Amino acid sequence: MQKVIKLPITSIQQEFQGLNNNLYKMIGTNNPILYSAAEQLFKAGGKRIRPIILLNIAKSTSKDNNILIEQKRLAEITEIIHTASLVHDDIIDNCDTRRGSNTIHNTFNNKIAVLAGDFLFAQSSWYLANLNNLEVVQIISKIIIDFAEGEIKQGTKAFNNRISVNDYLDKSFYKTASLIACSCKAIIMLNKNNNVRSKNFYLYGKHIGLAFQIIDDILDIISTSQELGKPAGLDLKNGNLTAPLIFTLNKRSKLYQLIDQEFQFKNDIDKAISNIKETNSIQKAKDMAIEHIQLAIHIIESENLSKKEKKNLLLICYYILNRFS
């Protein structure tokens, strides 16, 4: 039986609890509808993977084993930015559930959901400016630009059966990995330990971010809606062609027709998923995720950190792959 790997939070338990408490305080607004919409997002839960990554990096690279106030705030800002992006994603993807609960646009309407997402982006920008670190402001601001670029790249490639693996990875970077990469770099930039290389942690974040997205796309194919907390096969339905399908295209020519007709018939998504599962495409996608995780592991191993300090950063790598099991 395979050992279940959990996200490492023991060493950051106090900071993690503080983060959960502060998220509610940070979305404070006089408008009850906007507050209710934002509050619903945080109440829906989520594993808080991104801030856990950042807090572990801050702890592991600290000279005195303490996480700076600015680093804690950056972890909170990152989670707010991520949450804001989910609101807009759900509207674009016409997704009615997220983490097993109704999405904001489903609970209220599209207009409120757009405003709620914009409000969260604005709140994160305000707190970001208050860090009083121009370099960090610049790198985190780029994330929001990348989100928009990623959505445009995804939209222009919808139902495009000529999409390449490189196109897919490029889009995945903008939509997912950029947030993790940039925030990993920024958390080091706030550090007083000059021996730690922020560029390396940018690459660490980039590779675990890409692996995370690839595994997410595999789960969209092999999991049930109940397991996902949202409709299974939603990526395909929206024309978002991911790694498992791209790897299958060369082996199952009938997929081209299903994509050309935009999966318009009732059983088209099921047919596409069956075709994917009948090949080794899911394993090929997982192998690609493993390659990125191996690169992330190599980066951490090359850092001048003790075995104890490296442990949780490596555990994060193994956790991301373990989501597949």
From TrEMBL:
Obligatory cofactor(s): Mg(2+)
SUPFAM superfamilies: Terpenoid synthases
Cited PROSITE patterns: POLYPRENYL_SYNTHASE_1, POLYPRENYL_SYNTHASE_2
Endpoints of the signal sequence: none
The keyword Plastid is assigned to this record: yes
UniProt-listed GO biological process terms: isoprenoid biosynthetic process; quinone biosynthetic process
Record's keyword terms, sorted: Chloroplast, Isoprene biosynthesis, Magnesium, Metal-binding, Plastid, Transferase
Matches recorded under CDD domains: Trans_IPPS_HT
UniProt record similarity statement: Belongs to the FPP/GGPP synthase family.
Name listed for the protein in its UniProt record: Prenyl transferase
Organism annotation: Kapraunia schneideri
